[in-house]
Amino acid sequence: MRDDLFELLWEGLLETLYMVAWSSLFALLIGTVLGIILVVTEKGGIIESPVLHKVIGTLINSVRSIPFIILIVLLLPLSRLIIGTTLGPTAAIVSLSIGAAPFLGRIIENSLKEVSAGKIEAAKSVGAPPFMIILQVLIPEALPALVRGMTIAVIAITEFTAVAGAIGAGGLGSLAIRFGYQRFREDILIATVLVIILLIQIIQWSGDWISKSLYNKRFK
Length: 220
Prior knowledge:
By secondary structure, the chain is an all-alpha fold. The chain has nine helices and no strands. It has a single domain, classed as MetI-like fold (Orthogonal Bundle). It starts with a helix and ends with a helix. Belongs to the binding-protein-dependent transport system permease family. CysTW subfamily. This is Methionine ABC transporter permease. Keywords: Cell membrane, Membrane, Transmembrane, Transmembrane helix, Transport.
């Protein structure tokens, strides 16, 4: 084990956490809007709009069908336009956010569909407007499921950062490729894999704990 191992791991971990945090935030904002639109505009939804539902659904499916490594390359011009460069963790956030948002949108859609139709109808019967139904019925009732879905999405984004590392995004993925593989540093390769596994376990445990707490609070 060489002296620079812990320094390299720490730097790679910080870059990965930076990418995961910001990408998860932006993906959550975009994905939440997409998921809500899909639910409320479907047939029988509170703002039924088959055309909009079809357009959004097709857009989500189209983006999700593109392999992430190819999507990164396609979004490089956008990263350069927004960030001013295509290299580094900040530039990777653009691709990570756009790549994860449709995936998260579908998760949020499925979570919101778990809400009892009776509760939505009850809100409609007292004259609640669609916006209020979304904020006071759909989201609160689906919150435990939403947290579980978001946990899956954050884990997926963490895995995406490793792929993004192949094209200069930085982070643990880049460390594993540049040092572990290309320079034959088995100590870095093994340590990087272990750190990623530990990070994902922490994310999963945290998400499960939050979801369980919300569920227990709801039915207490």
